[in-house]
Amino acid sequence: MECRKFQEHITAAVDNVLEQREKAKLDAHLAQCPRCKSEFESEKLMRNVVKSRCQRTCAPSHVLRRINDQIDAEAIEPERSLRWKKFLSSQYVRPAIGFALACIAVVILLNNNTTINTPRVVEASLLPQNDIIKQSLVNYLAVVKGEIKPTLASSQVGEMKSYFEGKTEFPVVVPTMNNCILLGGVLNDFGGKALAHVVYRHNNSGIIYVYETCWETVLGGSPFHLAQDVQDELKQTNWYTTTSPDGYTLVLWTNGKTLCSAVSTLDENTLKALLSASQQKY
Amino acid sequence: MVRMAQSAVTEKQREFQSEALPHMDFLYNYALRMTYNAADAEDLVQETFLKAFRFWDSYEKGTNVRAWLFRIMKNAYINRYRKEKKEPETVEYQEVENFYNNVRGSAAESSDLQEAVFSNLLEDEVSRAIAELRDDFRTVVILCDIEELTYEEVAEFVDCPVGTVRSRLHRGRKLLRAGLLEYAKKRGYVEEKMKD
């Protein structure tokens, strides 16, 4: 439908940010399409109604007072949440670096019926773009939303391993996990370093997304970022688990030269059990 | 040692107060429109600033502090009010299709009529209708139409592409129109006009 193409141009035109050439095309279309013209008028009206009716208010004065009181109290006796401090020590806010997202797409129905019970929560919004944990979460969400398309859709572990063979400087881990079906995988890179991505479905009820890269590269500090205490724990125990505020579980583990990061809505114990059981087969 | 630590703390407080606190009204307004409850909005704002103060060292000086604060608040809002929703909202293609057809069907009224119907609505009704929008639509309508941020600024705040901001705004305004029409009908204004 012709009109479909103009839908978002209408929005941009209503906000006076539509570029000249596009605006001319839109005007021409509106001149001979009463429905779109009506839609344009309609949207413009909505914008005006909201602008004219909705006033901003000031926060009541006691809000500022309470905030200042909190800050004073905080300054005297800093938060003693060891779990937070431990994880959030030195990492955040380097300049954001864009990166190309991996391409795995599968159509999924998520059936979420597990509760998350975990000691550690990571504030993902505060992590830099090149952080391993942040990238894992962002990719996981993109997979679940169906925003990325597959390069290799396969349920055969052997086929998947062959696909990755020789393309990365680390062995790609394609675990066989109980109650899980392999859905697909893809290879890409970030900052010149290879990344492998593997996606599973657990029991028709959830996606497990696994992000993999070279552990030595991560230890080198560039191009990836991973908090020091996460690295330390991985060096000591080979495992690290945490959750995001939205309730997604992350399990990181090292397997020789490979660093893996799995994201899922499964609870921490289940996910870790699945992953460690599969490791024994290597 | 204690004296040095003391002055470092005061410095941090001073910095925070001069750079972060000025954005309190902006955050309060957003919180109010999202929670539609003054007490909840106040709690959310207080929680946001406390978190922001604790993580102040991780804020990169010179970057957009308002966007940084906004993201902290948005997370706090999700944690408090949307905790039960662990899955991200997926867009059903059929839903989009139906929606498009339904709303376009009602766009045949003259623009005079439309203007009359909607311009008579009260602030309270408009605010309610906005509060009834789904979170992601509501956010862009608030940030673009009330707070007057550009698409690019909203994209930075919400951490999504500019195209997504534009399409959410487009749908959000349509949904708002449907909501406002209901209020207009309730007040009898629509029927009245049609009798003329």
Fold topology:
The complex is a heterodimer of chains A (282) and B (196).
Chain A: H1 2-14, H2 20-32, H3 34-53, H4 61-76, H5 82-87, H6 132-144, E1 152-153, H7 157-164, E2 180-190, E3 193-202, E4 206-214, H8 215-220, H9 228-237, E5 239-243, E6 249-255, E7 258-264, H10 268-279
Antiparallel strand pairs in A: 1-2, 2-3, 3-4, 4-7, 5-6, 6-7
Chain B: H1 2-19, H2 24-35, H3 38-54, H4 65-81, H5 93-105, H6 111-119, H7 123-131, H8 135-146, H9 151-158, H10 162-186, H11 189-195
Helix pairs in contact in B: 2-3, 2-4, 3-4, 4-9, 7-10, 8-10, 9-10
How many beta-strand runs of chain B? 0
Percentage beta strand of chain B: under 5%
Please tally the helical runs of chain A, counting DSSP H or I stretches of 4 or more residues. 10
Across the major sheet of chain A, the strand order is: 1-2-3-4-7-6-5
In angstroms, what separates the terminal alpha carbons of chain B?
Answer: 82 Å
Structure in words:
The complex is a heterodimer of chains A (282) and B (196). Chain A is of the alpha+beta class and 282 residues long. Chain A has helices at 2-14, 20-32, 34-53, 61-76, 82-87, 132-144, 157-164, 215-220, 228-237, 268-279, and strands spanning 152-153, 180-190, 193-202, 206-214, 239-243, 249-255, 258-264. In chain A, strands 1-2-3-4-7-6-5 form a seven-stranded antiparallel beta sheet, sandwiched between helices. In chain A, 36% of the residues are buried. Chain B folds into two domains: 2-81, RNA polymerase sigma factor, region 2, helix turn helix motif (Rna Polymerase Sigma Factor, Chain: A), CATH 1.10.1740.10; 93-195, Arc Repressor Mutant, subunit A (Orthogonal Bundle), CATH 1.10.10.10. Chain B has helices at residues 2-19, 24-35, 38-54, 65-81, 93-105, 111-119, 123-131, 135-146, 151-158, 162-186, 189-195. In chain B, helix 2 crosses helix 3 (38-54), helix 2 (24-35) runs parallel beside helix 4 (65-81) and helix 3 crosses helix 4. Chain B is mainly α and 196 residues long. Helix content of chain B is 75%, strand content 0%. Chains A and B meet through helix 1, helix 3 and helix 4 of A and helix 1, helix 2, helix 3, helix 4 and helix 6 of B.
